[in-house]
Specification:
Elements lengths: L4 H52 L3 E2 H9 L6 H16 L1 E7 L4 E6 L18 H13 L4 E2 H10 L14 H11 L3 E5 L8 E5 L1 H6 L2 H7 L1 H6 L4 H15 L1
Antiparallel strand pairs: 1-3, 2-3, 4-6, 5-6
Protein name: MAGE domain-containing protein
Organism: Pipistrellus kuhlii (Kuhl's pipistrelle)
GO biological process, one term: negative regulation of transcription by RNA polymerase II
Length: about 250
């Protein structure tokens, strides 16, 4: 027996409604994906702009960032600015610091109070202070004395490999064992009585003079929240050192 006409009409109606809902969800998903891509692109453009300001030692303002970089995405400025600031801090070791809350003026300074600008030569376009801060943190995580093999194992996970040119940091071994040793930020010494010879990293006198263990650990607090690991013991040691210094 043929289905009643009203039943066929209802089935067609439900089918059409399902198609419309599916199409609407797909359109919504496409729109969100496009917005996400646009925000990411603006974030990278803002990072490039801030790096130019850092190299030129010039301040910037919110108004300048909006007009020169953000443009049609001004409603999303807080998110874009936050992502770009975090990228500047963790990748390059640079803080975007507000110095005038009325005119919203910002300066770009090396993080943790370090005086090293991270520019090895005039031909280098990317500051490498972010990697220095990571090395100082790794030394702390290893109990103030980090075996070289452990350092490279961790850096390899980040894509920073011994003997391989990195797109931001250049040749990392040169930085770790020569540049930052000459700058007095780290000590690179042979492990006593090791045969064959093994090497280890320690904080240098300039690192101790310019920053503290607690500041370095706080710098990575957001990362620790995602991967707590040894946070309590590391912070306890750092606080103890701060009290001893006081």
């Amino acid at each position: 027996m043929a289905a009643p006409a009203c039943s066929q009409s209802e089935d067609e109606g439900f089918s059409s409604q399902d198609e419309q809902e599916t199409s609407s969800r797909e359109d919504s998903g496409d729109a969100k994906s496009a917005l996400h891509d646009a925000i990411y692109l603006k974030m990278t453009e803002l990072v490039e702009f801030l790096l130019l300001k850092y190299r030129a030692k010039q301040p910037t303002t919110k108004a300048e960032m909006l007009s020169r970089v953000i443009k049609n995405y001004q409603d999303h400025f807080p998110v874009i600015f936050s992502l770009a600031s975090e990228c500047m801090q963790f990748l390059f070791g640079i803080d975007v610091k507000e110095v005038d809350h009325i005119n919203l003026t910002y300066v770009l300074v090396t993080t943790l109070g370090l005086t090293y600008d991270g520019m090895v030569s005039h031909g280098q376009s990317m500051p490498n202070t972010g990697l220095l801060v990571m090395l100082l943190r790794l030394i702390l995580a290893e109990g103030d004395c980090a075996p070289e093999e452990n350092v490279w194992e961790t850096l390899n996970i980040m894509g920073v490999c011994d003997g391989k040119e990195h797109w931001i940091y250049g040749e990392p071994r040169e930085l770790l064992t020569k540049v930052w040793v000459q700058e007095k930020y780290v000590e690179y010494r042979q492990v006593p009585n090791s045969d064959p010879a093994r090497y280890e990293f320690l904080w240098g006198p300039r690192a101790h003079a310019e920053t503290t263990k607690l500041k370095v650990l706080k710098f990575f607090l957001r990362d620790y929240r995602r991967n707590p690991g040894s946070v309590p013991s590391l912070f306890q040691e750092a606080l103890s050192d701060e009290e001893d210094d006081a």
